[in-house]
Amino acid sequence: ITNSFITENPCKAVPLDFYFVIDSSRSIRPNDYEKVKTFIINLIQFLKIGPDATRVGLLQYGSVVQPEFSLKTYNNKAEVEQAVRNMEHLATGTMTGLAIQYTMETAFTEEEGARPANLHIPRIAMIVTDGRPQDTVEEVAAQARQAGIQIFAIGVGRVDMNTLKAIGSEPHSEHVHLVANFSQIETLISVFQSKLCLDLCQTVDHRCEHQCVSTADSYICRCFEGFMLAEDGESCKKCGDGVMDLVFVIDGSKSLGPANFELVKQFVNGIVDSLDISKKGTHVGLLQYSTKVRTEFTLGQYTTAQGVKQAVSRMQYMGRGSMTGSALRHMFEFSFSAKEGARPNIPRVSVVFTDGRSQDDVSEWATKAKNSGITMYVLGIGKAIEQELREIASEPDEKHLYYAEDFEKMGEITKKLKSRICTGTQLTPSNKKSVTRTTQQTDLNKNQITNSPLETLESQLVHETCPSESVL
């Protein structure tokens, strides 16, 4: 693909009348409100905004509907972006039905800037909500759809899926999306990109082995879960050379709480997805500890990723004290024994997860484990103690010790882990197809390129045990 082709055939935005309908209720925390604004700004990068191109309007709602700007207010992208940045959080109720009614009866009228129906400009409303409406939505949403408005419903957190389906257009697989938290809302950008612009991947011979994804000026190749992008930027491969015996040591103490324990399980399975787990490949074992230590499964128990992931999903939260030292002792004395499936002359790696201060000493058994040849990675969350983390981790610290302020940081990258474990760099410029990324595209992908602590941990894990593979 040549630069001249891209110049002549950019990712062409389709003209739309596009309205954002944003939940601004009190249940949304201020930092989450900012993430919604960032999501909106990133999304409009795919739109060519202007009176004869796409027109953008926005309202936010709580107990009342507050129009921020109409379809006729702004004529360019910079003005829309600034208006979004200037929005202030309402922090009141959740009258979603009222907001949809306003969208239908007022926002998409010609008086407010919508173009006449006979021009057949698509009318799209994107509704973002984090909770259950305080009013009814089913009837008014049906009326809006019948009036020709295509509705995308995005739910964040504990939103009732049936409510989202009552709002969104058919097919629901394309119009209804649910993410676990506001940090994950950015993962929807690529989903909507293909809906908002002409997909360059469909017009060129892209040669991507798995997936082609259009960008504002070109395209990139991506791989399915458990694969990494090869050096040619087109083909996909497993991290097959990374054979190791890997034992997770997972904190199940009461300070986590059941919800965060589920996030830890997702974290473990994210790593598992990107390893070649097989009889001759990587083997995985797992301990959970609180006041006591429990072997959830041994290194010799499962020889497929599916078996390991199912075992992780079945784990029951212990929810008591935090005896990290006892867990390290158990790992050292039993987990890497031949009886539990450890193999001779295979690299031994342990990933220790903790969210707080241990009730016993960690240094003795961590030192013994490291001296025996076990590479120790440690991940601390929240109130984890830096000194303890340093005592557990192998040297150098910058390669083996990782810390995140809260569990939300884990949720932020869980989706990325499943497909990017081996490199974490699939969106670097070296994988782009013969073009220079624009400033806007760089901003859009900034969060996907930057290594966060957890992402670096997983990349490092695989890289340390995959010496024959180059990290791009």
UniProtKB/TrEMBL annotation:
<dbReference type="GO" id="GO:0005576">
    <property type="term" value="C:extracellular region"/>
</dbReference>
<feature type="domain" description="VWFA">
    <location>
        <begin position="245"/>
        <end position="417"/>
    </location>
</feature>
<dbReference type="Pfam" id="PF00092">
    <property type="entry name" value="VWA"/>
</dbReference>
<keyword id="KW-0677">Repeat</keyword>
<feature type="region of interest" description="Disordered">
    <location>
        <begin position="428"/>
        <end position="452"/>
    </location>
</feature>
<keyword id="KW-0325">Glycoprotein</keyword>
<keyword id="KW-0732">Signal</keyword>
<dbReference type="InterPro" id="IPR050525">
    <property type="entry name" value="ECM_Assembly_Org"/>
</dbReference>
<dbReference type="Pfam" id="PF14670">
    <property type="entry name" value="FXa_inhibition"/>
</dbReference>
<dbReference type="InterPro" id="IPR002035">
    <property type="entry name" value="VWF_A"/>
</dbReference>
<dbReference type="InterPro" id="IPR000742">
    <property type="entry name" value="EGF"/>
</dbReference>
<dbReference type="InterPro" id="IPR036465">
    <property type="entry name" value="vWFA_dom_sf"/>
</dbReference>
<protein>
    <submittedName>
        <fullName>Matrilin 2</fullName>
    </submittedName>
</protein>
<feature type="domain" description="VWFA">
    <location>
        <begin position="17"/>
        <end position="196"/>
    </location>
</feature>
<keyword id="KW-0964">Secreted</keyword>
